[in-house]
Amino acid sequence: MAPSQFVPPVAGPELAAYGGQLRDSFGRPITDLRISVTDRCNFRCVYCRSADPETHVAEGHLLTWEEMERLARILIGLGIRKVRVTGGEPLVRPGVENFIARLHMLGVADLAITTNGHLLAEKCEALIAAGLNRINISLDSLDPVKFERITRTRSLDRVLAGIAVAQKSLLRPVKVNAVLVRGINDDEVEAFAEFAREHDLIMRFIEFMPLDGDRHWSRESVVTNDEVLRRVQARCSLTEISHERSETARRYRFAGGRGEIGLISPVSQPFCGHCSRIRLTADGKVRTCLFSQKDHDLRALLRGGADDSAVEHRIREVVHQKERGHRINETGFTPPSRTMVSIGG
Ligand code: SAM
Ligand code: SF4
């Protein structure tokens, strides 16, 4: 189906009042918002952050919770239905539970968080009380030595404890995300699959993308999800589960019914044609694609006293510039100079 034939997923008086569903220039409805609430992190994963000491943007450059809430409210009025709170590490910013509660009160029905899990065991209950519906926990190794090599922390036990607490809660079934990098953790595919079965959770394999701080990415470092599927199928029988077109993961359930795997293949099988996402960076910029060369500032507008309709107008203009796709597989592709989480550029 050509992007221009997409049907708006939301319609109604509240959207009409705002001039209708937010769409990009290819007709894709934008319904999914990622809010990065901080650039800070208590881990330094090798495929994400540089090993250099952190250079944080100054406190005053980060959006306040009130500013983030205001942008979220405007965006919800434009048809955003799913909000995922991320970072940096979202759980290190004090007040994140309160922010989730405010998003919940704005009527976000699908409210998720992505976390490295370090602080999860102690915060899980408060996050659920605030209205969190879903959780993704990153876990790149089940081996303590390798976990330390990847994250440059010794937090494996804390992350496993966080997963266990979430899996016993209303957030069940939790999604656990692993980024596989050839030569680092690609030998753990089978162990991760077993982990999913044992704990009856959803183990998702994400292909390594050229957005890393240390610039180690190469095509050879990517473990394609076709390889992952072949290797898991060599051990266990899997049944494919149907999924929504806009969902990024191909999903498979283990025979016997316990556990699932999800394959997210931005490199080998890009899903840009159905992309419904935009991101808001912690310093108030809209990022229309993970691979955008340029972010679009809203902070100056907010702080300059713009009213909601001026902000809405700017958002529509920016979304109109959303890229058709990420071009990783095109000749001459140049990754952005920033990482997945860096801001301020
Ligand atoms: N700190 C939180 C965490 O690790 O879950 C949230 C932010 S982190 C940037 C969100 C997700 O992006 C994590 O699952 C992480 O593994 C993934 N990620 C970071 N850099 C990546 C890269 N170069 N390629 C693929 N995934 C990446
Ligand atoms: Fe931090 Fe998440 Fe990046 Fe790891 S992937 S360094 S936990 S932001």
Task: Describe the 3D structure.
The protein has 345 residues and is an alpha/beta fold. It has a single domain (29-343), classed as Alpha-Beta Barrel (TIM Barrel). It is built from 10 helices and 12 strands. Strands 7-8-9-6-5-4-3-2-1-10-11-12 form a 12-stranded mixed β-sheet. Helix 3 runs parallel beside helix 4 and helix 4 (120-130) runs parallel beside helix 6 (156-167). It is globular. It starts with 12 loop residues before the first helix and ends in a 26-residue tail after the last helix. It binds S-adenosylmethionine (SAM) and iron/sulfur cluster.
Q: Notable features of this structure?
A:
28% helix; alpha/beta; TIM Barrel; single chain; binds iron/sulfur cluster; twelve-stranded mixed sheet; 10 helices; 345 residues
